[in-house]
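Researcher: Hi, I'm a grad student and pretty new to this. My advisor asked me to get structures for two proteins we've been looking at. I'm not sure of the right format, so I'll just paste the first sequence and hope you can take it from there.
Model: That works fine. Here's the first sequence with its structure tokens right after it:
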Amino acid sequence: MEQPRARTGGRWLLRSLASRLVLVSVVFIAVPILIYQQFRAADEDKQTLLLQSAQQQGQLIARALEPLLAKADASLLPRLGEELSRFADENTRLKLLLRPKAVPGAQGFYYVGAAPQAPNVNLDIERQRLLEQGILARLADTCSGNQPLAIRLQTATGALEVLTSITPINSPFGCWAVVTSHSTPTYLGSSIGQPYWQTPEVQAAALIYLGMAALVLLLFLGVWSNLRRFGSLARQIGNHEGGRPSFAEQNTVPELRSVAEDFDRLVDTLRSSADNLRRAAEDNAHAFKTPIAVIRQSLEPLKRIIPGNDGRGPRAIVMIDRSLDRLDGLVSFARRMEEAAADLLEPPRRKVDMSELLEDMLSGYAGLLAERHLHLRLLITPHVVVRAGEDLLETVVENIVENAISFSPPDASIQVRLARSGAMAVLTVEDEGPGVDPAHIERIFERYFSQRESNDAAEHRTMDATGTDGGSSIVPFDQPVQPAGTGDSLHFGIGLWIVRRNIEAIGGKVIARNRETGGLLIRVDLPMAH
């Protein structure tokens, strides 16, 4: 039993909307992370190529300026801007740093030329960034080694540029450094000098992806919340709360409108069918019982007219009387079956104080218990409130208790216990009767099954020639059997079947087992009201 249950749970998990929502969320989180890693690796390769190209460009410009700077002196400084302008353009900018021989350390570097011309404030900002990152400190030690840069700067005017390389040139006058920077879209649109996620492409893609993910998740959540409202409404309908709520009124998803309307029609059909069954049961019972009463009244004059010494006449009257009793029992049985079917279509689920109901009902059995010399023990926990219907519970208690009474020998005890067990209320009825044949214990809740014996039953079987002899039998619909020792009611083997059907209709369960000390125990689990 465990393996099928586990497989069922696995299928439920795979088909669950909540599980799929979690799966979609995981996919929406994992996919961008994987794609981001791949794109970032590709961008790093692109960034390396760009920086290598800029570094080579800086080396070429430095080699072109090296002959001039090798013999430079202070008189050359005013003309350096003109020399740099030969290699610069509107997108490629050149700046020249100088640290005289007599000035040690990184603080000795100052800008002495720029092409195109740049405001001093921009040059100061750039020099400060080079100092902060230790680039000038490394140049001050050796004045050698071409260093690729990846520094993104914002000028005083708000324009952006990317420092791409710094190439040192050692001369007798001091240490020169040619700084190249670019402001083309190729460099500014790349991730050079900034995290990859800050690039316009990634941010635009992230916005589109987040919007798409939000739409999908909102769609899932909208359907899920609508289904949860449907579930809550179904519970209200089952519990007969809030008048006559409508699925269509609770629906917020246009695509589910037809489904909601179908649910409303189904609920209305079930309610109408239950009402029609109850009316039909009452009408049919009235229609049959009226002629039965007429026939019974008509027999009274016949009983007085037919002489007692005529053996066949009185015997015929007795057979008619018994047949009328059976017919009256069949009519009552049919009515109970139809009412039971109506309750199955629309089981009542109201709050009922089971403790009070039990005490009230069991007090009515005092006379019958005294007549049978039986003792009733009550162990009832107070204020146990269940969700069911009073009529339904009365039928359950009546059938179980009367079953225990009918099988109990004189001077025996019947124990009725009511207690709480988690979210369920547990009702147990124990008797000291003969119990049930273990081979039939699973069948006592079947329809028409009975273990009763009686002489009257044997007589019925002899007259009808349709039954089977023995202590255990399936009682045919048209063949009632009277319990031994009583002549007050007819039994059709449906009492415990109605108990199980009613209990399961309200979400409970019922089981039976033989007691070790003899007798039968019937346990009923009922959902408690919250």
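Researcher: Oh nice, that was easy. Here's the second one.
Model: And its structure:
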Amino acid sequence: MVASAIKHHSIHQVRNWTQAELLKHVLDREEKRWQATLSQYSENEKASIYKLLTIATLSGGLDLEHDENHVYDALNETDIANSESELERYIEVIKQLSGNPSGSLQPDIFAEYFLLQDSQYRTGGFTRSLKRSLVTAQELSPQDTHAFISRAAVDYTSELTAFKWWKLLFTKANTEESNELLEELTASAFNTISQLSLHGERHTILDHWLPTLCALEDLKSKARAINYQGLLNSHLGNKTIALEHYQTADEIYKKLGEKSGESSTLNNISQIFKARGDYETTLKYLQQSLAIQQEIGDKSGEGTTLNNMATTAHARGDYEIALKYLQQSMAIKQATGDKSGEGVTLNNISQIFKARGDFETAIKYLQHSLTIRQEIGDRSGEGTTLNNMATIAQARGDYETALKYLQQSLVIQQEIGDKSGESITLNNISLACSARDDYKTALKYLQQSLAIQQEIGDKYGKGATLNNISQIYRVRGNYETALKYLQQSLAIQQEIGDAAGLCVTTINIGHIQWENSQQKEAYKSWAEAYQIAKKIEHAQSLEALTGLAEQLDLPNGLEGWEMYLND
């Protein structure tokens, strides 16, 4: 495609084109060639040929070599041709148009673009003709047709056309009680949802894909869809709504005796309480999940739960217990050959050593994690590990290396469409810039991160980014603007119940008040932060408040805050 564009335009022009502009150029040129090929055909015949091209492309090509009878039987049921000889002639034409013996357009990204555009401007939209083409393509090859629709939904996230295609086939299979097709379409939808989630398309999933799946009579798939509603709402910061969905899914799984689904849902419920800073309830649900996984022999799930128990212990500053859980998880991951899980666990172990200040050991675990993730092609995990390697380099004062790792991470996240990861990396790049006193560039990256978080509805990330923006204005001496951003951050964190975030923001508000000579208000803010941090055992905030107590000459570190509160 690129070679074709360069042939007719300068390389400098093409370099600045968007993907849509490049695809439009290719489609325009192809259509001129097609028009020449089809010049001898009537308008009705052209419409039939385009319809056949659509069916061949949707179904992954006409397999005339191995399944000729099935292909002709399916196509003869359509209104494409009046006779078999006419159909044979049309098949030869689409081979010429596509340049492919199977009559299917390639590559996939161009084929998807053609069909999405075709459904809009050539057929006048989602017509009866296009609907029949979808059904015929599915009859020829259900697996290839469903895979094409899934790819189109993920590659063109701004379009809902592919979703409408899927829903048509899904509704038809449901109405006709075609259980095999319904199962395949349901599986395809969950795969699509997984990919769309990675791209940050949470609202598209919640508004369109999941409501259809939640109406299924198959209770197991219904519970899975409701569980997914919980996950996405949790990512969006809607923790109360998420908890309601999880509890509904859990009830269904219990009713079905579906232990695996129940343990997974209990794990998800635990993370709601972790986000609220209620670590005791978090561990209660994780222990319930672990007991079920051990009962049914779900080693993979057991390893994941142990990882979550470790991150909870880590948040409380209990590094020995966290490390113990991670080592247990690692043994399971290695025994079961779970390379992906091993990469995650190595990454988490590194964070224990980082928290202890043992950067050399931390980087060793991160490099091991990176090797595994690159080996298995885990691009998302690779981006995360590079991010963590950057934080180690930054902690050592090696900002150049930190930025190198962060730029590598950013490229990966942009390539795979990981919006959430991209926003985190932009935040981390801003911190590296701030450490070099380049506050203008740091602010630019934070604003980019904030824009992404607003786009995907990431309230947790937005609260943290507003906090980080405030620190740019604070260091510049613009306390009024800094306080404005902190108050915005505080409002979000109170709304979503982000107790850990509230600790950090309240401490920072106290700093602004102190610098504004509002010592009484500052003490009050820091004492409030202490109460939250003590309740949730937030190690990072308690450590900061210990240092602050020493600077303020409060006796015995954290006991000084207790004495202040009791005065």
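Researcher: Is there anything I should tell my advisor about the second?
Model: You could mention this: The mean pLDDT is 90.
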